[in-house]
Amino acid sequence: xxxxxxxxxxxxxxxARRQPECLASYRTVTQEEPTMSQPSSTDPAFxxxxxxxxxxxxxxxxxxxxxxxxxxxLVAGRHVIxxxxxxxxxxxxxxxxxxxxxxxxxxxxxLTVLSVVFSRIxxxxxxxxxxxxxxxxxxxxxxxxxxxxxxxxxxxNQGLIRKISVYLLLFPVSDLMVAVVNMVFAMIAMxxxxxxxGAHVSVHLILVPVGLIFLFxxxxxxxxxxxxxxxxxxxxxxxxxxxxQALFFTTPIFYPASAVPQLAPLLNANPLSWILxxxxxxxxxxxxxxxQTWVITSAASLSxxxxxxxxxxxxxxxxxxxx
Amino acid sequence: xxxxAGVSMRFRSYGDTLPSLxxxxxxxxxxxxxxxxxxxxxxxxLNLTIRQGSRVGIVGPNGAGKSTLLKMISGIxxxxxxxxxxxxxxxxxxxxxxxxxxxxxxxxxxxxNGVLMGFSPRQMRKKIQRxxxxxxxxxxxxxxxxxxxxxxxxxxxxxxxxDIDPEILLIDEVFASGDAEFMEKxxxxxxxxxxxxxxxxxxxxxxxxxxxxxxxALWIDHGRIVADGEPPxxxxxxxxxxxxxxxxxxxxxx
Lengths: 323, 254
Known about the structure:
By secondary structure, chain A is an all-alpha fold. Chain A contains 15 helices and no strands. In chain A, helix 6 crosses helix 7 and helix 7 runs antiparallel to helix 10. Chain A is globular. Chain B folds into 2 domains: about 1-90 and about 205-255, Rossmann fold, CATH 3.40.50.300; about 95-195, 3-Layer(aba) Sandwich (Rossmann fold), CATH 3.40.50.300. Chain B has helices spanning about 20-30, 65-75, 105-115, 120-135, 150-160, 180-195, 205-215, 230-254, and strands at about 1-15, 40-50, 55-60, 80-85, 90-95, 170, 200-205, 215-220, 225-230. In chain B, the strands form 2 sheets. Chain B has a 6-stranded mixed β-sheet with strand order 5-6-7-3-8-9, sandwiched between helices. In chain B, strand 8 (about 215-220) and strand 9 form a beta hairpin. Chain B is globular. At the A-B interface, helix 1, helix 5 and helix 9 of A face strand 2, strand 4 and helix 3 of B.
């Protein structure tokens, strides 16, 4: 039996290793030229040299290597992502009588119900209320769906993760991509509805893809944070749905921000309400967002992604022991 | 070549519950641990080199660390300390049917499995017919595998996992069940795979199999290499200790 180190020492070791794993040990692949096209995602040929390499001596160079490695892995894993996304969608829709038509029908029906409910019960003095509601609701649904799925993505795929060497970032990204596909169909459904509702389209529509990019970056960051928290503390599995509910009501989705001035500080502190400005302006207000909005939105989404990425890198090789 | 240099592996056990958030926060605040997490080092400074052309059989009692070693070589676990260098494409046959999704059909699962092993979907589509044929499941390609019998599932998993051209083959008790006819086919295929691959590392409790197939045997216990050498000799020593004296040597000589 291997001798056990005293607890105190173990704890100190733990504190000493705060750096992300990839920074502490620069990975070198020593594999020979593969005879078959094989992505490095499943490439188990690695060394975990603790020797000091050049890359280790420069902070920026280390991060550059880190990020480049991860991007490569994601590109190499695109087939895996594609197969996962199509499998998930197939499982969800294939066996139904109407099949993939549901991807369009479901958001269409739901938006109809919601617009009836909200425009009858909660009356806000604004024109074309359904247009306003949809332009905020669809990004929100993307956010909440991908967050609740990707926070669990390591746990739901643990059977696989524990048996095959697979690049872990592929799982949350796949979950996000499923939500992207659903959102695209929801957008199409929304445009169909909007035509009936007599909304008009302007050049400001190009704000929607911009908003989508911000939303994607932000959601990816939050998802990585949620995934780490849920994997390490199962309590978050229950907390996340409650937190999402709370966030839903403190984001100007079914009410315009101007209607509740008493909530203004809360709404301003919520990055999502800044991201939604792009959707509201592009689809409903037909205006350009202020410089302040641009700055805050990009800062918020990029820093969220950074935090998520740092957390992921720090625990990349420890997730597996907590599944 | 597989080169394991100075590898240590630490496992932490948290009992039956993971640490709660409250515990972690308190631990951080007090800089000490409230509920002791027990940790142990399964491997300490393990050194092992496996050269091209060797077929290594690993024996040892349950919980000795055999599967952990395979998982470290295949890259599923990263060692706490040390270096593992692997040269060559690895085919881990560690647990069959790992990447199977019950809702999807047999052919869809073949593609997903292959993609996870690093093949492109196009390469896998070419293989589907051959894999289904080997598994004898041509009529069931369209059926979700949750309706498969366990034998069918095993056949599908085995056929998919072994339809490869590996340089390094890691096998963890894969010579498992199936009907007699399939077992014959499976054995032939495993034999071919082992002939073709440069390195084979297999874990098995079927000691005869190791004696038959391997050129080198490792006896691992509690993360240490107890014996390393010719399979008959290592297995004899292992059986002697495992069964205790006389019984062991009788079993070994038979």
